Amino acid sequence: MSNFIKEFKEFAVKGNAIDMAVGVIIGGAFGEIVNSIVNDIIMPPIGWLIGGVNFSDLKVELPQVVIQGVEMAPATINYGSFIQTIINFIIIALCVFMMIKGLARIKNAKKEEEEAAPAAPAEPSNEEKLLTEIRDLLAKK
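The structure corresponding to this sequence follows.
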């Protein structure tokens, strides 16, 4: 049992596990931001443009069923929620694509900047200076 706990501690404090946890947390927070953009900023104008239709409210109500004298609530096929989910996915995928493209552009710009600026030659070490002096003295003789 103590070996299991030791292995678990080693796993939990490894950089990869911590990085993954941070990524999941940041991803969840980013997902909430994107959902807010979709639901609060993008979908209201789209709903207004199509006559005030709220996709989430679109549904087909199936006939009401009576079982042993008890009327059951009618079942619904909520195709509007499905449409809303597809639109959310497309917008989220577009946001992630644009974010990745932006990060790649920044990365490429930084890389081009580093390549464009030649690195200053390193100053020769003391040994190299001494060997150069010896070479020059020998060449004079």
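The mean pLDDT is 82.
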